[in-house]
Every structure is written in C-alpha cells, then in structure tokens.
Design brief:
About 60% of the residues lie in helices and about 10% in strands. The chain has 14 helices and 4 strands. Strand 1 and strand 2 form a beta hairpin.
Length: about 260
C-alpha cells in the first residue's frame, strides 16, 4: 500500500565519509559504509516504513559502535567504562548490550587483558596491591577477575622499599615523628598496608644514624634565616615540619616573645 512506503529513492550521494540517501517524500538519511553495503540501494527503489525504521536503527547502532571503536583505538577501556561513555551519548541500554557484544567478539574489549596490562603498568610504577585493586574496582573489573591477580609478598616488599627510598631523603627536613606520619600516609595512599609500611619505615630508621632533633631544628632554622623570613613565619614552618612548640622556643629563644 502506498501509505506503507516511505517513497522512492531520488538521490544517492557521498557526503564526507558517509552515504546520503534522499527520498521523494521523507527526510534523507546518512549512513556509514558498513550500513550502506548491507542494503541494496538504487535510484527509484521504494522503501517501506518498516524498512526505513530498520535502517535507522541499524545506523544508530553503527554510530555507537563507530564511536566506541574510535576511542578504543586511542586508549584501552573496560566494559564498564565503555558502557558509561555510551550511556552519556544517550544510547539505549539494549543497543549498548549489542555494541559491547560486537566489541568483545572483534577483540576490541577484554577485561581480563585490560586488568593484566593495568597491573603490569602499576607494578612498574611501584604501586601497591590495595591501590591497584581499588582502582580496578572503580573501573568496573568484576570480583571474579580481581580474585585471580597474584601479588607475591616479595614483589610487594620490593615496591614498598622503592617508594620509601624515593621519599626518605625528600622528607629528611621533617622531625622524626612528622616524617614517619608523612611516609605512612604516602605509602598507604599508594596501596600498602599500615603494618607493612610501618615495618619498613622502622627498618629504615634503624639503619639511619641517630639524629639529634634539636640539631636538625637549628639547621632548618638557619636555612630559613638565609631567606630573611621573619620569626613568626619561621615558627609556623618549623611547626609544619613536626617540631614541637616547646623545642622551637627552647632552641630559638629570640622568637619567644614574638610567638606569645
């Protein structure tokens, strides 16, 4: 019946990277190559309304698939991350499921491979297991895959020591208590447990010659004086480095009146 037809195809032309199909009495449609070759288009061909809607649905699917393949060609993502990005493009849930299925079949998506590569990259950066697991959870890696990751104790200790080596001298200007607190916070943030971090910090402290905290305080004070800091500023900076109020005043008597 005529009412069931969209109309005859009046023109087929290439517009940029797509095919534009024009009709006698309906809006033109623009198609990816992958969709265009699935249908037999020619001038004068009549397309039913059902066929027209089918083509539109197929093109919408191809739009989402093309977008996903494009971003995956630049960077790896998990299934969850791709689903999120497709949702943000206002693609329907059933279409997203189809896109994910195609991407997996064509080896664009593989959570197990992504996880292995991510663990290797984090290991090279000496990141601890707890941070790695938490970040993978946030990326949507399922629990059954996370359970397959092996974190040998020796390797975790190596990473922790490497992190500690990098931080130890950088925090040398802090008081012993303050340095320990800062190192613990940093190591835990980078994925190591409190107990493991504390154990290694104590080992480092034992290897280091006993430091006179008051001598360290005086050394830091002398450095600050070179920058012509006023005594109030020096006091605040020394407190920030973990030195006690009493030790600062006892060591640097000339600032006592200004602090009170």
């Amino acid at each position: 019946m005529p009412s069931e037809n969209v109309g005859k195809i009046t023109e087929i032309k290439r517009v940029k990277k797509k095919w534009e199909i024009c009709f006698s009495n309906y809006a033109p449609i623009s198609l990816h190559d992958e969709v265009y070759v699935e249908y037999y288009f020619y001038i004068g061909k009549e397309i039913s309304k059902k066929e027209y809607e089918e083509i539109l649905t197929r093109e919408k699917l191809e739009n989402g698939l093309s977008y996903a393949k494009n971003i995956l060609s630049k960077k790896s993502y998990t299934e969850y991350e791709i689903e999120t990005k497709l949702t943000q493009k206002n693609i329907q849930k059933d279409e997203i499921s189809k896109i994910i299925k195609i991407l997996k079949e064509e080896h664009f998506l593989n959570d197990a491979d992504y996880m292995r590569e991510y663990v290797e990259l984090c290991t090279e950066k000496n990141i601890g297991k707890y941070r790695i697991i938490e970040e993978l959870k946030q990326k949507g890696i399922p629990s059954f895959l996370l359970a397959t990751i092996d974190f040998p104790k020796e390797k975790e200790d190596e990473k922790l020591i490497a992190q500690l080596n990098n931080l130890w001298r950088k925090k040398a200007s802090l008081s012993k208590r303050k340095r320990r607190d800062v190192l613990l916070e940093s190591l835990q943030r980078n994925g190591f447990s409190y107990s493991d971090a504390m154990e290694k910090i104590k080992e480092f402290e034992k290897k280091e010659p006993e430091v006179d905290e008051r001598a360290k305080l005086r050394k830091e004070y002398d450095k600050m004086k070179l920058y012509s800091y006023d005594n109030q500023k020096i006091y605040r900076r020394l407190r920030a480095r973990g030195f006690s109020h009493e030790d600062i005043l006892a060591e640097i008597k000339e600032i006592k009146d200004e602090v009170y």
